[in-house]
Amino acid sequence: MIEFKNVEKKYPNNVKALEDINIQIPKGEFVAVIGLSGAGKSTLIRCINRMHDITRGKLIVDGIDIGKLRGYEIRKFRQRIGMIFQSFNLVTRISVLKNVLVSLVPELSAWRKVTGIFSREHKIKALTALEQVGILDKAFVRVDQLSGGQQQRVALARTLAQNPEIILADEPIASLDPVTSKQVMNDFKRINEEMGITVIMNIHHVEIALEYAHRILGVRDGRIVYDGSAKDVTEEVLDHIYKGREDVMKEVEGEKVYV
Ligand SMILES: Nc1ncnc2c1ncn2[C@@H]1O[C@H](COP(=O)(O)OP(=O)(O)OP(=O)(O)O)[C@@H](O)[C@H]1O
């Protein structure tokens, strides 16, 4: 369970990115965070793994007040939370398998990284994760030879290999075409349903968010203006989240995308 209690995030330049956030996210939910550019979506997600520190309130994850964690405790806590980015964050000049292995053992000594000597247990874990996202056949291919969608699946496998309880995804499909986007979203759905991993995702594609997520958080000017089931999201709700900013709406292949 993730709990935000009166959470505020003010950046050092005095921009208040989050204000009075009060939400609870039970284990196993698939949550999509939607809203205009600059609304505070990334900040909201990144506070959960302490990439950003909140400036007021409390953020409690499985009973732990994460604001109180220090140094090593933060690193240990982060191992339970996977993070997926728009830009994949892979090492493109090495193989798919090695990308997963290296992140699996971040404390690995330099010589092991260079020589590629990994334990049998780690190799099995890495290969299993690649199988879970359907790219086991690419294990020995260099990452720069893969499509964007395949690279995002490698990033997902890398996260899965760490056995996370929560996956935070910051615009994971923003640089993918519509067909590949759906494949990646299907991976997230399967991971959420079959492994019970909580997924919290920032996403600009409203229709995709409504199709895949159980719950929608609509953020506007740092506040939650909608919190409810995806199936209850109406045109009025979307207007409330995006109102006055139709100028930032684009239609891409019949789908509304807010940019
Ligand atoms: N490191 C930072 N320092 C100062 N201000 C920041 C920082 N990061 C974000 N902000 C500001 O905080 C507000 C919320 O930004 P955030 O990135 O969370 O929004 P977002 O909804 O994720 O936007 P986008 O969809 O464009 O990624 C914006 O006004 C932004 O300019």
Automatic annotation (TrEMBL):
GO molecular function: ABC-type phosphonate transporter activity; ATP binding; ATP hydrolysis activity
InterPro entries from the UniProt entry: AAA+_ATPase (IPR003593), ABC_transporter-like_ATP-bd (IPR003439), ABC_transporter-like_CS (IPR017871), ABC_transpr_PhnC (IPR012693), MetN_ABC_transporter-like (IPR050086), P-loop_NTPase (IPR027417)
Record's keyword terms, sorted: ATP-binding, Cell membrane, Membrane, Nucleotide-binding, Phosphonate transport, Translocase, Transport
ABC transporter domain span: 2-246
Taxonomic superkingdom: Bacteria
Pfam families noted in UniProt: ABC_tran
Any one GO CC term of the record: membrane
Listed name of the protein: Phosphonate ABC transporter ATP-binding protein
Gene source species: Gracilibacillus dipsosauri
GN (gene name): phnC
